[in-house]
Amino acid sequence: MIINSINSRMLSKLGSRGAFGVALHEIANDNNNIIALSADLCNTSGLDRFREAFADRFINVGIAEQNMVGIAAGLANEGKVPFVTTFSNFLSMRACEQIRHFLGYMKSNVKVVGLGSGFAMGMFGNTHYGVEDLAIIRAIPNVTVISPADSSETFKTVQAAALYDGPVYIRLTGTMNNPIVYKDEYDFKIGKAVKLKNGSDINIFAAGTMVYNSVKAAELLENRGLSVGVTNMHTIKPIDADVLDEISSYSKLIVSVEEHSVVGGLGGAIAEYNSNKKNVPPHLIIGTEDKFKYAGEYKYMLEINGLLPEQIADKILSRYNSI
Amino acid sequence: MTRVEALEHCRKMAMHMRKNALKMALAAGNNGSHLGGGLSIIEIMATLYGHVMNYNKNNYKSRKRDRFILSKGHSTLGYYTALEAAGIISEEQLFTFEQNGGYLPGQPSMNYDMGIEYSSGSLGLGLSYGIGLAIASRMSDCPYNVYVLLGDGECNEGSVWEAAMFAAHNKVSNLTAIIDANSLQSDGPTSDVLGIDLEQVWRGFGWDVRMVEDGHNIKELIETFEAPGIKNKPRVIIARTVKGKGVSFMENNNEWHHNRLTQLQYDEALSEISIKEVHLSDN
């Protein structure tokens, strides 16, 4: 599928999970080795079409995420390309050791798709929010971690992950009618960040849903006379060192924005990398606070965590003025 | 190979393996090793690699080979010695056991070049992986069997039962789980720590359950492995074994779950085993 204004609107309506389902169905048409595994969340994962079209390549393990990852590893090591799917924290936490063991230690070619990460699960509440998954999975060697910016990039991520020879964790954020970042075809490469706009004062590194909100925040800041860039860091691991080096060399402030805890996510990855560098600018980490709050609708959760564009802009301005 | 020849071959393998296991434990020095569970699986492993499993020692990566998964990774003395007895790894390689940075650590690390299908050490993960291998056989139309060896203590892990449910529900009939039921786990008798009736529970989970009353009797093991299975069911063979089997001061003594072996103890153990070698045909 080529990204254009029509496709991007269609995928956006479906949200990240629906876009994932469309992508996997399309890829499975051309590749008989693609297998989908679900832990009793087939419909929720956008996999109904896949199940109907490829019944013999769809496996429902029941509500048993640990077993799902183990089975997928066995399939992968026999040449299959399994995608395991469920809500992100039931993978990153319930099946954490299986991910470490099979994907990390044994390097099994399994694609783990963490659905509904961040606050997408709305009123389901804290058990279903995924705001620690990057910190957890990023600590495991050999696992590539990708957080696509919108539904079109979700499509591209699934395509790229299927072709990539190695374990991948795909973090899907946002709800139906995901804001659209990409309306046109573009070059997506695992590990290669995409500069959406350049700024000479401030540069924002964002991932997942926060790419769109960061673009909007940058516009607000530009209205105040600042030059603000935004880079889509879709691949959190391995982090794109080249783009970090380049942008850090001329920015007065760098900012990371993510729908994830301020502990150990994209902000953590950038800070770890820059800690070994000389003359890097100050770094503001914007994410969810390190605490559990009351549950609520998606937009409400973004708001109480200060992740709406105006709030992001305010935080950045305040930090910039203190330099 | 006739049944009599197979029996003789496996018995010789087991004897050779048990001696090597002790030699490896001695060479491991102060690192120590998991002798108890290593010795309890020796006859099971000799039966698998000596007779039951289909593999070619000169082409052991063949897609059609049967797969063996050691889920209870700490029984590695009984595993590496089987790979050596089967001619898959050399004697020289075998005695790199527990060397720093070596290929044969205290718990196995996946290495297809050495016939090691799976990394283990963390309990409760192997059965799921074995299911993945087994259903890949169906999907690829490449027939082979998968054997997964678990401990009775390991069956405490919840992930084992997730896998057990799946295999029965999905009729994964090219899968055999073997339980090394030596009745002891790290903190003592399984009946004290978390006792369950394995036979009833596995049957309740929908498996074809086979009991082996003496998991060191190769004749009984071969007969059980060769008995026709129930159609469309995964099979579990629950083998009653003795932890530390073959060395009187180790048998049923949990101090030997993991321990270092002194030269004196090694000499005593070896002389006990050598006496038994004379009476091999009694097994």
UniProtKB/TrEMBL annotation, chain A:
It comes from Ruminiclostridium hungatei (Clostridium hungatei). It holds the Pfam family Transketolase_C. Belongs to the transketolase family. The gene is dxs_2. One of its GO terms (molecular function) is 1-deoxy-D-xylulose-5-phosphate synthase activity. Its cofactor is thiamine diphosphate. SMART domains: Transket_pyr (SM00861). Residues 14-180 form the Transketolase-like pyrimidine-binding domain. Keywords: Thiamine pyrophosphate, Transferase. This is 1-deoxy-D-xylulose-5-phosphate synthase. PANTHER family: PYRUVATE DEHYDROGENASE E1 COMPONENT, TRANSKETOLASE-LIKE PYRIMIDINE-BINDING DOMAIN-CONTAINING PROTEIN. It is an enzyme of class 2 (transferase).
TrEMBL record, chain B:
Its cofactor is thiamine diphosphate. Residues 22-262 form the Transketolase N-terminal domain. Keywords: Thiamine pyrophosphate, Transferase. Its EC number is 2.2.1.1. CDD domains: TPP_TK. InterPro entries: THDP-binding, Transketolase_N. PANTHER family: TRANSKETOLASE N-TERMINAL SECTION-RELATED (PTHR47514). Belongs to the transketolase family. It comes from the Bacteria. GO terms for molecular function: transketolase activity. Pfam families: Transketolase_N. This is Transketolase. It comes from Ruminiclostridium hungatei. The gene is tkt_1. Signal peptide: none annotated.
